[in-house]
Amino acid sequence: MLVNTFRLALLSTTASFAAVQQRTFSALNQKSFPALVQEIKATNKDIHYLSPKDLHSLQTPTSQQQPPHVIDVRERHEVQATGTIPGAIVLPRGILERDVSKFIKQSDPRDVVVYCAGGFRSVLAAESLVRLGYGVAEGEAGDKGKKKEECPKVWSLDEGMDGWVKNGFQVDKDGKACK
């Protein structure tokens, strides 16, 4: 009986020590949201960035290039308040990973542009898409036989919807295009 009591005390002490150690480790590695976004921008080379003006010009299809898929990762209340970029797929950040394949297949040859309100959450969304296999080359779970520069890319829209509106580009409200 004494041995079992000793084992229980030892296990309890070990578990407490592990919990304290985990909290200490977590505290040392905590980041702010902006710091996390900056870290992803600096380290993930599979995410590309474009301005609202660049996206606007890409949305005009040419014979050589189809317009990109555009995903709005803002929450529904944000979309209802300001509208969307015309043609955008509304997939809030909380369901993006779960539902993106319902709209865009990983083998789709078109680029994917994600945007939020100000250009920060879209970086996290772009990282998730890359981790799911969008915009990565052969040897990284991408299309076989394609070089990295031939693969579709994942883009994050700098300045997000705020930048789009600031530039005076068309906005789609309730399924109707507005300016």
TrEMBL record:
Residues 64-173 form the Rhodanese domain. Keywords: Signal. PROSITE patterns: RHODANESE_3. It comes from the Eukaryota. InterPro entries: Rhodanese-like_dom, Rhodanese-like_dom_sf. Residues 1-18 form the signal peptide. The keyword Transmembrane does not apply. This is Rhodanese domain-containing protein.
